[in-house]
Amino acid sequence: MYKGIYIALSGAVLKHTQMEVISQNLANADTIGYKKDQITFKDYLIPQDAFSDAPDGRAMSDISTFMTDLSVGNLMKTGSLLDIAIEGKGFISLEGNRCTRRGDLKKNGEGYLTTQNNIKVLGEKGPIQLPDGALQINESGEVSVNGEKVDSLKIVDFQQSENLTKAGGDIFFFKGNPSQTKGVIKQGYLEKSNVEIVKEMVLMIEMFREFESFQKAIQFFDDAQGKATNEIAKI
Q1: Phi/psi zone of residue 146: left (φ > 0), alpha (ψ -120 to 50 degrees), beta?
Q2: Confidence of residue 57 (pLDDT cuts 50, 70, 90)
Q3: What is the DSSP letter of 128?
Q4: What is the pTM of this model?
Q5: 143 with 65, same domain?
Q6: How far apart are CA 200 and CA 130, in angstroms?
Q7: Mean pLDDT, the chain, as a whole number?
Q8: Which residue has the higher pLDDT, 168 or 68?
Q9: Cβ neighbours of residue 79 under 8 Å, at least 6 residues apart?
Q10: N or C end of the chain, less CB within 10 A?
Q11: Taking 60 as the threshold, does the pLDDT of residue 47 lie above it?
């Protein structure tokens, strides 16, 4: 009886975790450059008892991996000269082994090109510092002010997504040496999140219904256990 409760409980915990992931995605649906998270599961057979590894035919589920969907979101035109989007693969390289797809940049008090949370954007020569003047960023990533080239954006990519770890809604830490890529830069555009709201809402409804089913199963096993205990006490 208790194994049935554990199986139902493991399912309920996983569905609750999945609903939290979906909720996080929906909360960031309007976050520029946000990449939605996904969760995968694994099943394993329950042993017959504590003294045997032989399975009894029933399976429990557990979290296998948390994954980030790195697919590209739609681009929207803003017209701002400090807004950029990468058309295709690649990430904007930032100081501190970080990178992002979020391109709503700004110029700080020292003239450095930074993200909205003040992380410096890297070029081929290091952090990009902009003099006063008209800014232009062409499709190859060359940064010019008043027609004079200042630097080129360092656009990087990764052969394995496992090298990336989320450090926030739109910032990633990376390990190893990323490869540089020739992403097409679109000045005056931003990339939206890749969250599909309707699809996430439908998935949340499905998860909620499955969670309720596991709750009912837990209640059933608990009631059955209580009845069995009472019957034994009468004997």
Answers
A1: left
A2: very low
A3: -
A4: 0.76
A5: no
A6: 41
A7: 82
A8: 68
A9: 188
A10: C
A11: no
Residues 61 and 157 in one domain: no
State residue 33's pLDDT score: 94
User: First CA to last CA across the chain, in angstroms?
Assistant: 20
Q: Are residues 98 and 185 both part of a single domain?
A: yes
What integer pLDDT is reported at residue 214 of this predicted model? 66
Same domain, 84 and 173: yes
The number of distinct structural domains making up the chain is 2
Q: Which helix (H) or strand (E) holds 151?
A: strand 148-152
Residues 12 and 53 in one domain: yes
Residues 111 and 184 both lie in one domain: yes
Q: Which residues contact 9 (CB under 8 A, 6 or more apart)?
A: 214, 218
**How many Å apart are CA 182 and CA 227, to the nearest integer?**
68
What domain range includes position 84?
Answer: 75-191
Q: Rounded CA gap, 152 and 74, in Å? A: 24
- Take residue 144 and report the two structure tokens written for it: 């010019």
Q: How would you list the strands of the sheet with 155-157, edge to edge?
A: 164-166, 171-174, 98-100, 91-94, 155-157, 179-180
Q: How does 94-105 read in b/e, with b if 16+ C-beta sit within 10 Å?
A: beeebbbbbbbb
